[in-house]
Amino acid sequence: MLLSEGSKQIHSLDDIDPVHVVRDIFHEVSDQVWIPIEVFGLDLSITKLTVFMWIAAAMLFGVAFIVRNNLELVPKGRLAQALEAIVQFIRDDIVKPNLHDDWKRFMPLFITFFFFVLINNTIGMIPYFANPTGSLSVTGMLASITFLTIIFGSIHKNGVGGFLKSFVPPGVPAFILPILVVAEIIGLFTKSFALCIRLFANMIAGHIVILTLFGLIYILKSWLLAPFSIAINLAMSILEVLIILIQTYVFTYLSAIFVGMSLNPDH
Question: Distance between CA atoms of 156 and 106, rounded to whole angstroms?
Fold first, then answer.
């Protein structure tokens, strides 16, 4: 006997169920209905990723509650000092350069974006936990919030006329204008769509690489590849920590750029 797969004893690679291997590797991003709920024909079932997203939200509320009840002019404790440094980074390097005079109104949104995406990206690294941002539903919801902020933020500041005028670039010849207006309208949707796909694809890409490397052992039917695959997968796991941080920053930064462009089309 070489290994065991649950109660099943494995004597050779032929005894390994490939479906079991795929399910184990993708358990962090695969979804399952835990409590089926249907209201007026709408599927409102509570799934595995829903529960872990609630856990991430509860962790976010918990940390905010602890820090809120211990507010001091000079933060004390490593948690408060670390959070202050992150908030200052979001304010000075993401929100202020892109939102200009409107940064105070939108600061809570982008702080929430950053910490919510960070926790949802990170929670999947805990054994047996799931990664909600590996689901298109979750990244689509986050991108939809950015999309609505772009539209209603611009209308609130510039009015309906100013919002529509932002689709008309100044100084463009009249015969090119129809093409550019259509391109600007399409761009409004593709910006948010790109946010959704970018975060989803980057969070699921690591699992695909790990599956590919482990799949080589099964496809070539050689245990000699195991040390190589394990070493590469260990390096991938370390790299995934860096990807989590980068993707959190990229999602928040791009959202700030898109919202800032809609509020200040002349910049």
Answer: 13
